[in-house]
């Protein structure tokens, strides 16, 4: 039995006919993930990050930080229940919400765009 992590496409305003079918896509095998893992995967016409928190919660998100656009999949890391941007160390919960910054309160509305994700067995 093989386990895979799957995500669905983001729906975007104005995408009446998206270039890819709305569906589930396998992006990783379960053995590639574990608490503290951050993976970068090709996804449709771009990339996503897939990460797992210390407690095992899984999340998939667009890789670019809403602060200044750093690619979180390039040297980003998981700290407890958040993924950390490597540029200025903003921290994002699995929901995508920015939960803290090194200098204080997170900017209002700062969030990673997340995708629905699930682990399935095939
Ligand atoms: S670019 Fe990510 S915290 Fe600044």
TrEMBL record:
It comes from the Bacteria. PROSITE patterns: RIESKE. It holds the Pfam family Rieske. InterPro entries: Cholesterol_7-desaturase, Rieske_2Fe-2S, Rieske_2Fe-2S_sf. One of its GO terms (molecular function) is 2 iron, 2 sulfur cluster binding. Keywords: 2Fe-2S, Iron, Iron-sulfur, Metal-binding, Oxidoreductase. PANTHER family: 3-KETOSTEROID-9-ALPHA-MONOOXYGENASE, OXYGENASE COMPONENT, IRON-SULFUR DOMAIN CONTAINING PROTEIN. This is Uncharacterized protein. It comes from Mycolicibacterium phocaicum.
